[in-house]
């Protein structure tokens, strides 16, 4: 357990110092965060290749955080995570291997099966890694917000549209920041203290979403970020961050896990608000 605590403390330090790291070391940090469940079995050359840097950069990264070299840093993760190596990651690797090594054309139904399996793996990972404390803080934030703004562009737009639609079924005032007509600034102008912004974005991060988060901070609104990592600009501009990593197949990432997380967030919020109504209204007024 001590090793795991040290690994968690290291990841926290990396998140705190991420923005100050040189660009190459930021790449190593992202790779480490995304592959922390299997980092203990990878060679320094493999990690360097995955980051697109020279092996010496990986060594410098370890030294930056107080280790003599990569091997010492790697040992922090080995004992804590070897027994818990993520099955979803290894399964995704097997999917990619099958595709790469397949000689004949793949039937359409098999392509569908690959996507379904990848989505299932992503949901398993979401279930295992959902942070209860963060999720509760997210529900509390939205429950007390006067207005809820929702922001997501490109692949995240479908998720943002859904959660805005779902939240319309509560008594909250909900605003989907669509940017229709190029009016992002105008749609965000009325956001202020007591409001909340739900910002959904994944690498490469949408500049419009990052802009919305900065506006929220300037206007003293709370920010809930939904993304895949504690590293990067969304963490810096958010009050609460929910992490979700999608399963992928054929180099396409799904939306299943993110949609599930947002549905769960909506249901948890609706339940919380309904309990509040039930507690404040006389029984006779509430029942049909």
From TrEMBL:
One protein family per Pfam: SIS
Listed InterPro entries: Homeodomain-like_sf, HTH_RpiR, RpiR-like, RpiR-like_SIS, SIS_dom, SIS_dom_sf, WH-like_DNA-bd_sf
GO biological process, one term: carbohydrate derivative metabolic process
Protein name: RpiR family transcriptional regulator
Molecular-function annotations in GO: carbohydrate derivative binding; DNA binding; DNA-binding transcription factor activity
Organism (species): Luteibacter rhizovicinus DSM 16549
Matching Gene3D superfamilies: Glucose-6-phosphate isomerase like protein, domain 1, Winged helix-like DNA-binding domain superfamily/Winged helix DNA-binding domain
Keywords, ordered alphabetically: DNA-binding, Transcription, Transcription regulation
Taxonomic classification: Bacteria, Pseudomonadati, Pseudomonadota, Gammaproteobacteria, Lysobacterales
Coiled coil start-end: none
Signal peptide (from-to): none
